[in-house]
């Protein structure tokens, strides 16, 4: 669906947007494990601001392809977020259930600002009305893997983003 060159160019643009929006300020990137780790590492390296990382882990009950809507925290953030500029970094925004859960959780820490960066957005699948502030690519309803994203924990290391053929699902 997207080559490594297309991804790199778009991530650079998102990083420039973030750098412009937070000019002169410091940031904490909070990546959602494990799918967002590669996106976070590329994004953060292109934002030339004082920044740090943290990670949050969630798992949703359900099968590999679809989240059931019930989200469970598997790892909390480790740094204080009170008064910080937080960028939540997601691989893909699908139904919006995970992001809705995470936004509520992070807002309880009272950050100065909470923004969401997602590499991919499957807008047509949304069940919860939630939006990301920085979106890499809007994509149709297809199951994708690579660049951190998995199917049953496989394919995360593919450098490009590929559509998983439906017969493999
Ligand atoms: P949501 O709660 O339905 O928005 O789920 C978002 C999460 O589902 C993402 O962070 C991914 O982990 C996973 N997900 C949704 N669609 C895909 C896909 O096409 N490939 C890989 N993971 C996906
Ligand atoms: Mg994920």
Please outline the major beta sheet.
Answer: 6 strands, mixed
- SSE arrangement, N to C: HEHEEEHEEEE
Secondary-structure content class: alpha/beta
Q: Order of strands side by side in the largest beta sheet? A: 3-2-1-4-5-6
Bound molecules: inosinic acid, magnesium ion
Oligomer: single chain
What would you call the shape?
Answer: globular
Q: What is the average of the pLDDT values?
A: 95
How many DSSP helices?
A: 3
| Percentage of β-strand residues | 25-35%
Distance between the termini: 17 Å
* Rg over alpha carbons: 15 Å
Uncertain parts = none
Q: How many β-strands, per DSSP?
A: 8
Helix percent band: 10-25%
How would you explain this protein's 3D organization?
The protein contains three helices and eight strands. It is α/β, with parallel strands linked by helices and 169 residues long. Strands 3-2-1-4-5-6 form a six-stranded mixed sheet, sandwiched between helices. The longest helix is centred in the N-terminal third of the chain and has 18 residues, at 4-21. The two termini are 17 Å apart.
Short description:
The protein has three helices and eight strands, in the order αβαβββαββββ. By secondary structure, it is an alpha/beta fold.
Question: What is the topology?
Answer:
Elements: H1 4-21, E1 27-33, H2 37-46, E2 51-62, E3 67-75, E4 85-93, H3 97-107, E5 113-121, E6 134-138, E7 144-145, E8 162-163
List keywords for this structure.
binds magnesium ion; 169 residues; alpha/beta; two-stranded antiparallel sheet; six-stranded mixed sheet; 8 strands; binds inosinic acid; 3 helices
């Amino acid at each position: 669906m997207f080559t490594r060159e297309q991804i790199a160019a778009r991530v650079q643009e998102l990083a420039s947007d973030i750098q412009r929006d937070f000019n002169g300020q410091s940031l904490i990137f909070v990546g959602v494990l494990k799918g967002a780790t590669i996106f976070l590492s590329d994004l953060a390296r292109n934002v030339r601001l004082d920044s740090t990382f943290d990670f949050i882990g969630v798992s949703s009950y359900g099968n590999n392809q679809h989240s059931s809507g019930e989200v469970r925290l598997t790892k909390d953030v480790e740094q204080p977020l009170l008064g910080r500029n937080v960028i939540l970094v997601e691989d893909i925004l699908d139904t919006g259930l995970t992001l809705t859960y995470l936004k509520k959780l992070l807002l309880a820490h009272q950050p100065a600002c909470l923004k969401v960066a997602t590499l991919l957005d499957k807008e047509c699948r949304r069940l919860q009305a939630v939006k990301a502030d920085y979106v890499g690519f809007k994509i149709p309803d297809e199951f994708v893997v690579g660049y951190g994203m998995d199917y049953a924990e496989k394919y995360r290391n593919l450098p490009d983003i590929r559509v998983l053929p439906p017969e493999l699902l």
